[in-house]
Amino acid sequence: MTDSPKKHTTKPKVDTTALESEINDLKQALLRERADSINLRRQHETTLSNMRSNSLARVVRDLLPAIDNLERALKHVPKDLVEHDYVKGVQAVVKQFEKALSDLGVERIATVGQPFDPNYHEAVHMDDSAGGDKEVVSEELMAGYKIGDDVIRHAMVNVRTQA
Which of 71, 148, 155, 149 minimizes the C-alpha distance to 113? Predict the structure, then answer.
């Protein structure tokens, strides 16, 4: 029996610093990809939210003339018909519209007695006969509406100055 000489196998030297550097680079790339994915998801959610808000605003804007006409009709009801069932029915329809708008997050813009704010009010007439420096809404000519801070339609108002 012949003893075969044992072969000494040596493992090739691996450059661990290069591997560690590559692992670190891959980790950083993965973190960047995750951050990009999160940002893309947020951007998509924001875009969807904006689309929903814009669609809601467009639908509400289309309904406002009908609501305005119902309110105008109620302002001109003859005194002898104020208690008539037909008038009460129209009043109920207006209240249904108001509730539906409220449920959608639509608010009517406060006007009479409020300080004039061009972000929410559109002045049709200015009465500065009082000579003051504060501009206050004196009359609402057409209601304005908003969703949160986004104005759907500015309130058309008359403004007067007061001291």
Answer: 155
Beta-bridged to residue 73, according to DSSP, are none
13 confidence band (pLDDT: 50, 70, 90): confident
Classify residue 152: in a domain, yes or no. Answer: yes
- The domain that holds 158 is classified in CATH as 2.30.22.10
20: in domain: no
Instruction: Read off the pLDDT of each residue in 55-63 and give the average, rounded to a whole number.
Output: 94
Rg, Å, the chain Cα set: 35
Extract the tokens encoding 126.
């200015």
Q: Could you tell me if residue 6 is inside a domain?
A: no
Token duo for residue 41? 């998801």
- Domain assignment of residue 141, given as a range: 108-163
Tell me, yes or no, whether 53 lies in a domain. Answer: no
State how far the Cα of 39 lies from the Cα of 89, in Å rounded to an integer. Answer: 51
Does position 161 have pLDDT exceeding 60, yes or no? Answer: yes
Helix count (H) and strand count (E) of the chain?
Answer: 2, 6
Consecutive H or E run containing 135: strand 134-142
Q: Cα 27 from chain centroid?
A: 38
Number of domains in the chain: 1
Q: What is the pLDDT of residue 95?
A: 96
Q: What is the pTM of this model?
A: 0.71
